[in-house]
Amino acid sequence: MSSDTGNEHEGGFEFGLYTLGDLSADYKTGRIMSARERMKEIMDAAKLADDAGIDIFGVGEHHRLDFAISSPPVVLAAIAQSTRRIRLTSATTVLGTADPVKVFEDFSTLDLLSDGRAEIIAGRGAYVESFPLFGYQLEDYKELFSEKMNLLLQLNDNERITWKGRLRSSLKDAEIAPRPVQQRLPVWVGVGGTPASAEFAGSIGAGMALAILGGDPTRFKPLVDVYKQAGVQAGHRQENLKVAITSHGYIANTPQQAKDEFYPYYANYVSQFMGGHSRGEQLSRNQFEQLANPVNALAVGSPEQIVEKILAQHELFGHNRFMAQFDIGGVPFSKVAASIELLATKVAPVVRRELKIKAGKLQTV
Question: Which part of the chain is the Luciferase-like domain (predicted)?
Answer without folding.
Answer: 14-318
